[in-house]
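Hey team,

Filing this mostly as a record. A colleague (T.K.) asked me to run one chain through the structure pipeline before their review meeting, and I want the input and output archived in the tracker in case anyone asks later how it was produced. No errors, nothing strange. Just documentation.

Input sequence:
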Amino acid sequence: MSGGAAGAPKPLPSSGPKSLREMPHPLATSSSEEMGPALTPSPDLLLPRSIADKDLSLPNGTPVDTSSPASSSSLLNRLQLDDDLDGETRDLFVTVDDPKKHVCTMETYITYRVTTKTTRAEFDLPEYSVRRRYQDFDWLRNKLEESQPTHLIPPLPEKFVVKGVVDRFSEEFVETRRKALDKFLKRITDHPVLSFNEHFNVFLTAKDLNAYKRQGMALLSKMGESVKYVTGGYKLRSRPLEFAAIGEYLDTFSLKLGTIDRIAQRIIKEQLEYLVELREYGPVYSTWGGLEVELSEPLEGVSACVGNCCTALEELSEDMTEDFLPVLREYILYSESMKNVLKKRDQVQAEYEAKLEAVALKKEDRPKVPTDVEKCQDRVECFNADLKADMERWQNNKRQDFRQLLMGMADKNIQYYEKCLTAWESIIPLLQDKPETK
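Output structure:
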């Protein structure tokens, strides 16, 4: 995907419409031994051969090998192209900055400037600048969940005040939220399907988003509607092994991150309490030096040393609060989003199994499978392909984010201890015995 190219990238080569069973998964390997267990609901609920060989289409009538941005083949194409993206090949840039406080009669709120630069054909202009508040970001996320139910939607920062922050209009809190909202939009921008969503386009370009909201445009895809209205009356027999493994991993991952988050918050709290003590501790040496003329210089040195250690610890605590904790919380919320997509996938598979079993119980030798059963199969296949692709993308992002996070944490701790070491080493000459002058 080059910077000058407009619109969606070209689809992968296709030899014509194929059965869903004949299509390899976008992330599957060429070796049959490495592909793992099949994604069929259960061995006793397979479609008859005549139906399995039939050219199937997605619920909206689009052939399976479509070049639409939402198709799995296009998703693979973009995944491959996006692996080596750099500043020269991207065609969509979005940033969130310039927070402003608005005081009205009924409410007080913060808006953020959302700037977009693009070469994509679906945008009328190459650059846009609009102002959005938190509830607009929340509206966008809800619309993405409705219209792209098979995909993992990035999480938003928590709506309510983060623990430890009292004033949601404070400069620190607003900046932390701005960074999180910027990350949210960048996640969507980098996604090969979500970035082409019409609601995302409107969010980036509409001057009056409220007017668009009031119109109540029904832009839900048929896929979205079908998943939205799936009832909970179907019980899944068993989740396929690979998706069961994903669910178990997410449970363990969120538990571990939650534990780290709680301990990190306790550490920060203890550091802040220690800072209070240090700020009282240092000046005592200075006042003492006023009473001891001969010890005045080394005592002042100790006081200054403690002050430097205070500054270093304060910087370390701020880094943990502003850089470390937000990443943990984002990925805790990310795991919950992935769990929700897994639940939707399970509902669709359960519905498919129930309907397919009902057809199998019919007395006819070659029962005709209703269209709604075929559509259920389509939805299961779409969920499987999209969920696996998004999980792969999420894992790649996670590895990069946590590698960067841990490297940053190590660097900040090294800087902290180096500053403290330098401060204490600086007073050693003042404490050493000086030769008496004759």
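Quick notes for T.K.: Residues 24 and 31 are 11 Å apart (CA to CA). DSSP finds eleven helices and three strands in the chain.
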